[in-house]
Protein 1
Amino acid sequence: MSETFDGKVIILTAPSGAGKTTVVNHLLMINPKLAFSISATTRKQRPHEKDGVDYYFMSIEQFNRHIAEDAFLEWEEVYQDNFYGTLKSDVERIWSLKQHIIFDVDVKGATSLKSHFGSRALAIFIRPPSLQVLVDRLKDRATESPKELKKRISRVKNELTFEQSFDKILVNDILDVALKEAELMVDEFINNCNTD
């Protein structure tokens, strides 16, 4: 009889532009025990993104069908007609490979996942050194129209109020330092955490 895998989850969340994806990519690159949970979304695919790698891109109809079939651990309409969700099948896929799961999700998704997985989860909130730094980063990305940017900044202000809801807070001021701190948090959790 094969021993069961004690899969853990690392949940990374942050306001848009705080560097969450950079931290996630770094952790995946240096730690072979981790695998990325691919979220489903109805938002438009950006030119550099690959379906089934960055996201599972779906129509609103497909997404609604998955909701009706209870296929999501959590889902949310982040902006009008922009849905995001975590598929149960993706969690099963990763644990079947005997890897721990890393999630790159928004604040509400992170709180839902933390409550679902309990002590099996480490939830890390990544925050910028200041709101102004974050606003500057969002403007520099130049991926949105001024109207979309205004909406995103308003959302960011709200998301920053949730940081105390998470297990750890990681300030992304000096990137190299933030990446090292993230490595240490994850290693300690995977190697020492008891999930009774």
Note: The first helix runs from residue 20 to 30.
Protein 2
Amino acid sequence: MSLMIAITAVVSGLFHVVLFSSTVLLGASGIVFMMIVLSSVAGMKDGKIPLTLILVIIIYLGGEILSVGSKDGIAHISHILGGICGAAFGLPRRRRLINF
């Protein structure tokens, strides 16, 4: 879990520095989004995508995608990258467990 948190923090931090170098990144909201998506992926059974994962992607990540570029002081790209990291950590692991 610590490794996933560290990777998510580094990925979102690097993207933020590259895309928005004039602003400061503060907080762990990207890591929270990673854990939200990761917990939704954990609900997979028999290779079926759970409804919670679909709703999280549509509601939370969809809202963040629509909010990118707004001047509200929130690092929406960190939320999006956290969700992508959560899916990247959870989906391959679930596939390996299903195949055994």
Note: The helical segments are 2-19, 29-41, 51-67, 76-99.
Protein 3
Amino acid sequence: MGRSGKAGPTLAQRERALGPLSLGSFLAATLTCAWTLIALAHAGTSPAELAAATLLSALPLLSNALYLAGHEGASIGMIPPALFSLIPMSTLACHHEGLPQVLRVFAGGTALLLACFFVLFCIWFLRMRGAYANAPSLAGDAALMVLGATVRDGRPSPTLQTRLDVAARLLREAPLRQVVVSGAGEAEAMARYLEEDGIEPARIIREEEALNTRENIALSLEALRRHGAHTTQMAVVSNDYHLWRARDHGRKLGVELVCVAARTPRSGLLQQWCREVLTILFGGN
């Protein structure tokens, strides 16, 4: 099942192009919250209300700031937290009689719209968790697919390391299991990491062409079949946020994959889950 036609831009390439928008949303939300805080203080809002709204607004903004400090470049996953940070201030402003009527109406509409946006994301978070929350236990010969992620200087990123650590544990538990490591420019580093962790090279199949999740699944299945893997189950190992989309692509290919979750590093937890929701909603592969 090879690739047909010219491959489009990957999610990472699109994300780099949207970097200024992601960073701009963070900065704009920060300035808007600060301006609203000053306006509310001048309008005579009680210190307790200001403190509560400031704290609730600051949490997603602080999360974005920490993400920027610990990762390379901005992520589209920073946009939803930036928008969520406006909800407390907008809600407080729309109920404050000391502000002009037009500003209160605008604040109320903004709060309502963003609250709906927040609820939509929460619903998707629950759906995404359902992909792996009740997954069956693996058979002893279940084949594993480990989906690629960022590799820096030839080494897997912390996010990818969590996937590989889970895969290594599963491989040590059952000597009949094989694993496909999938991703263009990532498979070699993934295989080397597993070998350094004590996994026999003969059990590792490299898939070095996939540019997105859909290709990860399709080409990994092809690689397993090409190597004559006859298993009772096929399992996909990836970070928790990523498994709904992986399972969905498997179903489109006629395969019911068992989802095995690796924990997402806390430094990018909110941004990764939000990024994944945006990817799903806009039809990303």
Note: The radius of gyration is 22 Å.
Protein 4
Amino acid sequence: MKYFRASFLITFCLISFSGFSQNEPTDIVNNFFTQFEEQGISVALDGIYSSNEWMLRSTDAISKLKSDMEGLNEEYIGKYYGYELIVAKELSDSYILMSYLVKYDRQPLRFTFQFYKPNNKWVVHSFQYDGNLSDEIEEAAKLYYLELKN
């Protein structure tokens, strides 16, 4: 009986904790990439946009995004190797941007997520992808961005 109570308590705590943590931006992103790797981009995009009922009204834009991203297949961009956080910026306690390097054979891509918490739940406010990393890193290396010695 003691074993049953202890295992019930542990299970209850784990369920409660996992339900609570599912709403954090990092958990939403990790879930996105898990779905992306296992089920494809369409399912992953449906998953992140389902957190925001207002985004569900933008079905045409989401369909176009899915179509564009499905073109980023192994024949076009090569094998997928994973993702790494580039930067996370917190504008306030209610607005966060997270940008990830997504690694492929041909070139890296950047996936950028913006999260908004209007009340007590984080929702995906925006998702974008691009391949402009090399342009930006070259720009960042320009002399006028560097601190020069006197």
Note: The chain has one domain: 25-145.
